[in-house]
Amino acid sequence: MTAMLNVKDLRAYYGQVQALHGMEFALDEGSMVTLLGANGAGKTTTLRAICNMVRSTGTIEFEGKPLTGKTTENVVRLGIAHVPQGRGTFTTLTVEENLQLGAISRSDTKNIPDDIERMYNHFPVLKQRHTQQAGTLSGGEQQMLAVARALMLRPRLMLLDEPSFGLAPLIVRDLFKILGKINREDKVSILVVEQNAQLALEIADKAYVIETGRIVMSGTADEIANNEDVRKSYLGY
Predict the structure, then answer these.
(1) Among 122, 153, 184, where does a domain finish?
(2) Distance, CA of 235 to CA of 225 (rounded, Å)
(3) Does the reported pTM lie above 0.90?
(4) Which among 84, 83, 106, 102 is positioned nearest to 94, based on CA atoms?
(5) Which of 31, 60, 115, 171 is the 20 to 30 Å CA partner of 16?
(6) For 232, which DSSP code?
(7) Residue 33 class from Cβ within 10 Å (0-12 exposed, 13-18 middle, 19+ buried)?
(8) Is residue 84 situated within a structural domain?
(9) Both 64 and 177 in a single domain?
């Protein structure tokens, strides 16, 4: 596989407070990678730094091109979609209007109706709710809409921040099955930050464990899942 995303010596700051301390990792094209760690470890900050939403230093390259100095909008235009924690759907707009807005940065418009139907195939419940305001959807449905809206960009890489947050276990498992399908069939590479380590490791190819803004462990998902320290700290057995 070819490395799609390369992060080297990444340091990020909130004011004078340093949140990341020399992070280094890579994501291969077509793969799914998970970042694991406790609350406050720096997982969300890592995604924000990739999108240039926080002040940072170091090197971030996407498909061989540096992202340093680019605006968040320009990062998106390169083919990186970010689904933040909290979903961020436009609650007063309908499901379909949200999907249409997801494609607003695209240069091509003629395939948007086909892509909306493709999203409905991935998430049939959204088709049932297509005229419903996003704010009236359940938490799981809103998360599905947030993912679908990001996919309307036709991204090469999708960044997901805690997609399982606040959702019932059955909804979470269904969502992760769909993410696996999107990764395999739509060839969208995925970098996911997730508290549900066990589920994330079931579908990821590779994992990195973060503590206080530093990567302390990395390996294949199987290696990390079978590591005794990881099992005790993050998997609960």
Answers:
(1) 153
(2) 8
(3) yes
(4) 102
(5) 60
(6) I
(7) buried
(8) no
(9) yes
